[in-house]
Amino acid sequence: MKKEEYEKTGLKCGLEIHQQLEGKKLFCKCPTKIHEEKPDYTIHRKIRAVTGETGEIDIAAEEEASKGKLFEYECYNDNVCLVELDEEPPRDINKKALEATLQVCKLVKAKIVDEGQVMRKTIIDGSNVTGFQRTTLIGYDGEISSSQGKIRIPTIILEEDSARHIKTEGNKTVYRLDRLGIPLIEISTAPDIKTPEQLKEVAEKIGMILRSTGKCKRGLGTIRQDVNVSIKEGNRIEIKGAQDLKMLPTLVKIEAERQKKLIEIREELKKRGVKTQEPKIEDISKHFKKCQGKIIQETLKKGGKVLGIRLTGFKGLIGKEIQPNKRLGTEFSHRAKTTAGVKGIIHSDELPNYGITPDILEKLNKHFDLSEKDAFIIVAEQEDKAKKALQAVIKRANECLKGVPKEVRGANKDGTTTYQRPIPGAARMYPETDVLPIKIDKKITENIKLPELIENKIKRYKNMGLGKDLAETLAKSDKAQLFDKLTQKIKKIKTAYIAEILTGAEKTIKRQFNVEINPTEEDYTELFEALEKEKISKESILEILKENKPVKETIKKYETISDEELKKEIKKIIEENKNLEYKALIGKVMQKLRGKASGKKIAETVKKLSS
């Protein structure tokens, strides 16, 4: 679709970006290291929804708690303490994380609160041991520019990250607490974004602003984007967990199309005169005694039942595609799965897949007294789970009469989305009583130093002689600060060469020699100082780094030799290899003297002495 077409559909998008920060956790002194090895210990919890200070129970919390899930938490001795386990009150807020958030507020021209009130946001999916997330509004009424106009930023929030989801096995979900409590900056935009392409542009700009602070974590999972999407006559859908910037436009395009199709279904139901319905959930197991379908056979053998409902006026609509390879029936199925934990549903628009013969179909049509526009839904499971699943389907079917239900959906790799839960209500937020309000007076905000924006850094690097791609790579990397320090000291080496080594050496050594190196700032400084004084040659740089030891310990054996020594060594090699051609001879010399002099000088000397 073109911009004008999106305007016609009334597309509106808002963005929430969550960025992890380096350093310690937000409310304790634990490090923010992520572990992949076996945990030191585990704990178990069950979480229940309770009435908040407003006197209401949050709608999303109530739905999640009704599932009665068990949560297992994997813990490590070095980065999980009693605060994460909810056995001890939180400490004071992390001052460095607060400082980074204040920097971001200033960079987006936001107003800063006089006093930060830590709040508890109800989280009932088990990803927080406490059942809530601590979150604090720091800035408001900010803005950034985009190619299609100004984008308002209503809130900048500092909050703690949730635990990492590891796996779900039946009724038990396993989380890892190494991530719980890592500081997160959340930047939310107003729904001012009008096209998928503009969404990507805004996300990139906010990401660049965040990285400009120099305090952000890097790598997969350290930044997450949630997208709010709606169209005319549709509803706000919150899409969680979009990690790939390139996929953002696709997510929006598919969601806009999904909402359009749901509105079409609503209109068709109106034409058919369909009203809100509460169909009876019926036991239809007797009709499936001769069914060859594997799912149904196994359920009946285990003492389960086949339950079903009639959906008046839904024939042909349940099988209607509303996302690529996903139908309205998929929506019904996901609602049943998340609510009752069933494996899926069977509906009358897709019967040949389940071993339902024409004979069984005839019996079902008669049993449900179906007209030509009616459909039925079947669930084969233990009776209580099957009932719960069908109740969820009935609720979702009735929502079709309104068009697009407000809900939280998870982003899939192909750009489609899957139902997760209802959009939480206002009842989910209440004050945190274990943390004092955070005073943010004028003196604190005036002392906050603004970092150089990455886009400005790129321009400066280009003016220093770096190509566009190299300037961008360096400015976005964690080596930019070191580059600035080195280029202030080192004047005889080209800035582009320093940038290439800082941004590329580690990857090159990993690719060529399968060695992972992690040179320190001191290592790089020693290296370039020696190169500037001509103690080593450029050819020896990768060889020195490849040793993966402190540079001061290894640099001695790579020091260059004098011109006289070079001639003497080359003469000796020529004498020992008189029959070799020039190219082979060069190879022999380089093998022995690589790094002891520049490649150019070695080649010139070999040519001179061998002619």
Q: Low-confidence parts lasting 5 or more residues at pLDDT below 50?
A: none
The secondary structure category is alpha+beta
Report strand %. Answer: 15-25%
Distance between the termini: 70 Å
Main pleated sheet: 11 strands, mixed
Number of domains: 4
- The total of beta strands comes to 23
Calculate the mean pLDDT score and round it: 92
What's the shape?
elongated
Number of helices in the DSSP assignment: 20
Task: Using the CA coordinates, give the radius of gyration.
Answer: 32 Å
What percent of residues adopt helix (DSSP H or I)? Answer: 25-40%
Written account of the structure:
The mean pLDDT is 92. The chain has 20 helices and 23 strands. It is elongated, with a radius of gyration of 32 Å. By secondary structure, it is an alpha+beta fold. Strand 20 and strand 21 form a beta hairpin. Helix content is 38%, strand content 20%. The longest helix has 24 residues. It has 4 domains: 252 residues, no CATH class; 126 residues, Gyrase A, domain 2 (2-Layer Sandwich); 81 residues, no CATH class; 48 residues. Helix 4 packs antiparallel against helix 5, helix 12 packs across helix 14 and helix 19 crosses helix 20. Strands 1, 4, 6, 7, 8, 11, 12, 13, 20, 21 and 22 form an 11-stranded mixed sheet that branches. The chain starts with a helix and ends with a helix.
